[in-house]
Every structure is written in structure tokens, then in C-alpha cells.
Recover the amino acids of this structure.
């Protein structure tokens, strides 16, 4: 918000009031947007994930942490963790989508104790590193950007879909009770993935990235969109690819309950892009307005506790 002290060379509110943010409209989709994504989903559904579980050096108070591996599209090996309740009976499951920070260990902020959590590292990142994909956000976001059908964001969405398949192979009893929770980069990827996979019943997007790509290419930022801006300045138009990988456009196609936590102040993911994702939703939508995202401020721990309480209530119907 405007009262937050910062040293960025730009205003992380971008001059938008809350009323302005709620009025941001998503871009129009390309005519073949749905076909583009349905074909990628069909490809992912043809993959046998062959999930594997092994011992892990990590431990959590209420969950056993297991090292996870499974196959995704293009023969990509995805690695991460699976968190299994130590005492509670498994009643539901979640896919957790991480941000662009290096994921060193699974998150311990889990809203429900009776759930199993699959925590994949998206392709090229964390435990799923593989050359020639760079794990650096400024380069990862550019991988195959000149090839819409091979662009890295589509592959990351496929890692969600094959992750759902892996979950159902391990725990078939959770069918119909699988949710997705993604933050920042993982929020944007979740928005791209969810419309096409009806096995995901509910989704939470926390300060989601990848929304309203035309705005991302214009607004100053300290996040990965700055790399896209530099690339466009050197190589020309990138919207031929990015228009198919816009989380706000994808949100137009969502037909299940969605909870969005969007920030009014954010130097990494411009708030208009976050709100464009929420504003595009046409069905059962829930909004939590945050003072700031990707930025520490005194009330943040309290606000995060409040958000966790909202998520417990939102996902209870699973």
C-alpha cells in the first residue's frame, strides 16, 4: 500500500486504487486458446507417471516427508516431496505449487492435517533441475519462448497434471477431493493448469504471477517479467507465445471454486496482473486482499494467519 516504506525506483502500487484493481479486465483470448491447452492436457493424460517414494531427511510435526519422483511430458523426471499424515486418516489431497525461489524443502504451512500433499519442483527448478534449462528465474521464464508449443510454462502446467495422475496412482481414494494451492509463479501455473483438469476440485492462488501479459510487458518490476521486457526490446514481439500463457486469460475458463489472495502493493508481481486473474473468474470466486506481496511488513504474520484460517474453511468441502 501507499504507506509502506520502500527503496524501489518505482511505485509497487502502480497508482492503482482497490477500485481500479477490481476493474482490470483480462485480455481477450486467441481464437484457438482452448484447443491449444486441451491438446497439451491430452498429451499429459497419455503419460504413465510411475511415481516413486523414498526416504527423506526432512520431518514435519504432523506429516511424514517422503522423497518423490514421477514422469511428466517429454520424458521429464519431476522430483519433489510427498507429505503423508502421521496420524490422521487421509481424506483429501493437494498439489502445492511453489514460487520462483529455490525450493530447498517442503513448506510446513499446511491448512489441513488429514490431507496428503504432493510438492513437485517444476521442471528445470529445484530438485527437477535439468540442462539446458536454467534454474535462474530470468532465464527460466525465457526457455523456448520462441516456440509456443514448447514454452516452459506449458511444461510446468503439465507437471501439475501428471502430478495429479501420480497422486491418484498412489492414493486412488482421494479422487474427487484434490485441491491445488500455488503461490506466485506456482499460482500462475495453477491458473494455467486448472481449467482443463476436472480432477482438481478447488484451487487457491496466492499473489499469482503470469496474469495479463500485456501489462506485465509494460509495468516496471523487480520480478521475472523484467527479463521478458528486456527480451522483447531486443527480439521484438513475444505476445505470440505469451498470449497462450496468460493466467488471466486461462481464468476465464475456470468453472470450479477459486480462492485468490491478491496484493495491492507488490514489486515482483504487479498487482494489476494479480487482480486480472481474479476479475476474469466467472464462477464461485473468493478474494482476500493483501496489503503487500513479495514484501515484508509488520502485519504480515497476522494477515497470513487469517489467510490460513480462510483456506481451511474454503477447502473443508473437499
Amino acid at each position: 500500500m501507499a504507506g509502506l516504506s520502500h527503496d524501489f525506483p518505482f511505485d509497487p502500487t502502480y497508482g492503482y486504487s482497490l477500485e481500479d484493481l477490481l476493474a482490470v479486465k483480462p485480455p481477450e483470448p486467441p481464437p484457438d486458446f482452448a484447443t491449444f491447452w486441451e491438446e497439451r492436457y491430452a498429451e499429459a493424460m497419455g503419460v504413465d507417471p510411475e511415481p516413486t517414494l523414498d526416504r527423506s531427511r526432512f520431518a514435519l510435526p504432523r506429516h511424514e516427508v517422503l522423497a518423490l519422483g514421477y514422469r511428466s511430458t517429454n520424458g521429464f523426471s519431476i522430483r519433489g516431496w510427498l507429505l503423508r499424515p502421521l496420524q490422521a486418516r487421509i481424506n483429501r489431497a493437494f498439489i502445492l505449487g511453489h514460487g520462483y525461489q529455490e525450493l530447498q524443502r517442503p513448506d510446513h504451512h499446511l491448512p489441513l492435517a488429514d490431507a496428503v500433499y504432493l510438492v513437485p519442483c517444476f521442471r528445470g527448478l529445484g530438485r527437477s533441475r535439468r540442462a539446458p534449462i536454467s534454474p535462474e528465474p530470468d532465464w527460466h521464464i525465457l526457455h523456448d519462448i520462441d516456440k509456443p508449443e514448447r514454452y516452459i510454462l506449458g511444461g510446468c502446467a503439465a507437471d501439475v497434471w501428471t502430478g495429479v495422475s501420480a497422486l491418484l496412482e498412489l492414493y486412488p481414494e482421494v479422487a474427487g477431493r484434490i485441491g491445488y494451492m500455488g503461490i506466485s509463479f506456482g499460482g500462475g501455473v495453477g491458473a494455467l493448469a486448472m481449467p482443463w483438469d476436472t480432477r482438481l476440485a478447488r484451487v487457491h492462488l496466492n499473489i499469482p504471477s503470469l496474469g495479463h501479459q500485456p501489462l506485465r510487458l509494460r509495468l516496471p518490476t523487480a520480478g521475472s517479467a523484467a527479463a521478458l521486457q528486456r527480451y522483447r526490446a531486443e527480439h521484438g514481439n513475444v505476445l505470440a507465445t505469451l498470449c497462450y500463457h496468460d493466467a488471466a486469460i486461462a481464468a476465464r475458463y475456470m468453472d470450479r471454486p477459486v480462492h485468490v489472495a491478491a496484493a495491492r502493493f507488490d514489486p515482483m508481481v504487479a498487482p494489476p496482473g494479480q487482480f486480472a486473474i481474479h476479475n476474469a473468474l466467472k464462477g464461485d470466486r473468493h478474494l482476500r486482499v493483501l496489503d503487500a506481496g513479495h514484501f515484508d511488513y509488520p502485519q504480515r504474520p497476522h494477515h497470513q494467519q487469517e489467510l490460513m484460517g480462510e483456506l481451511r474453511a474454503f477447502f473443508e468441502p473437499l
